[in-house]
Amino acid sequence: MILSGDVGGTKTNLALYTSVKNRWRRCRVQTFRSHDYSSMEKIIETFLTGADKVSLACIGVAGPVRGGKCRLTNLSWAVDRESIRRVCNAQAAYLINDIQALAFAVPCLRRNNFAYLQKGKPNPEGSIAVAAVGTGFGQAALLRSTGGYLPLSSEGGHVDLAPRNEREVALMYHLKKKFGRVSVERVVSGPGIHTVYQFLLEAEKRRESAKVIKRLAGKEDPSKVIVSEGLSGESAVCRETIRFFCRLYGAVAGNLALQYNATGGVALGGGVTPAILPAMEKGEFMEAFLDKGRFREHLEKVPVKVILDESAALLGAARYAKEMSNR
After folding, report:
1. Which of these, 74, 128, 168, 323, has the minimum number of CB atoms within 10 Å of its CB?
2. Could you read off the pLDDT tens digit of each residue along the chain, which spans 327 residues?
3. Kind of pairing, strands 265-269 and 148-153?
């Protein structure tokens, strides 16, 4: 039995898998609110109550991993590989970046696990870039090797934001006054949707309806309110926020495709990406993705797809544990 985990700033998903001749079966899965627990170990103890014995464990975490340890970027936890091994009494445990885990799942997902924004002409031997938008922005890559794909982790979500036009420059300076440094994750993330929305209200002097103001003042996640109101078309400000966000996201994804020369494709996941898929399909995301001057034709051949399986990172973590144990 393999314990796999996907730990983010908002929620933690855990699952148990078995694997026989590369056929994977998920036996159990559960979601926990990360902030309701003091540590990763507490969640694992709760999840494994009454479960069969675990032989291997692999946890994907939202942050950089060094020496089997990680202090999460958007959560006040320190996660330790050896501590995880002890709490589940496993033979071995592994700690990897959460988007690295997601990337490890991409090659074995079925076609119906994706929604295609651009079919392109994939190069079977090319690298694949992976990005995920949730509480933060994560990215990784799959590099082709003789033995298959090698998942490469990254902290590219924390690189500097690169504005492309006057409006994006205005956004950057608006945020710079508030936060000092402006990273990609500051705007291309779940909280980033709310950040873009506030820019439209404060810098562009947009006016919002009383209904939306009331919703935003309640207990709902403001970014989810903005997505809901924007996709329904009820709020002009929310609708424009989602459009602007899609352009920012598309530009970042296009940069990622160039950085990794991802001729094998770009796979986009996380909780936010499928939630705004109807807006991404309208074309502004792909126009920003392709808007790279003389490299437009190169990017038109790159498949761009959205991962619809929210549990993909769990499968990726389980696969990682299995492959590492076989080495």
Report:
1. 323
2. 999 999 877 889 999 999 887 788 898 999 999 888 888 899 999 999 888 899 999 999 988 898 999 988 777 788 899 999 999 999 999 999 889 999 999 998 999 999 999 999 999 999 999 999 998 999 999 998 877 888 888 889 999 999 999 999 999 999 999 999 999 999 999 999 999 999 999 999 999 999 999 999 998 999 999 999 999 998 999 999 999 999 999 999 999 999 999 999 999 999 999 999 999 999 999 999 999 999 999 999 999 999 999 899 999 999 999 988 887
3. unpaired
Burial level of 244, CB count in 10 A (0-12/13-18/19+)?
buried
Please check whether residue 63 is in contact with residue 97, taking contact to mean a CB–CB distance below 8 angstroms: yes
Q: Which of 5, 32, 7 is nearest to 17 (CA)?
A: 5
Yes or no: say if 252 and 163 are a contact pair by the CB < 8 Å rule: no
Packing angle, helices 222-232 and 190-202, rounded to 10: 70
Residues 6+ apart with CB under 8 A from 36: none
CA dihedral (20, 141, 266, 16) positive or negative: positive
Beta strands at 23-33 and 11-20: parallel, antiparallel or unpaired: antiparallel
**Which residue in 322, 315, 272 sits closest to 134, CA to CA?**
272
Q: Whose CA is closest to 93, among 80, 102, 103?
A: 80
Tokens of 309: 């399986």
Contact 273, 132 (CB under 8 A): yes
Q: Rounded CA gap, 50 and 98, in Å?
A: 26
Which helix (DSSP H) or strand (DSSP E) does residue 308 occupy? none
> What CA–CA distance (Å, rounded) separates 57 from 44?
11
Q: What does the block give as tokens for 175?
A: 């945020």
Helix locations, the chain, DSSP H: 40-48, 81-88, 98-105, 166-179, 184-187, 190-202, 210-216, 222-232, 236-259, 272-275, 277-280, 284-290, 296-299, 312-326
Distance, C-alpha 206 to centroid of its chain: 30
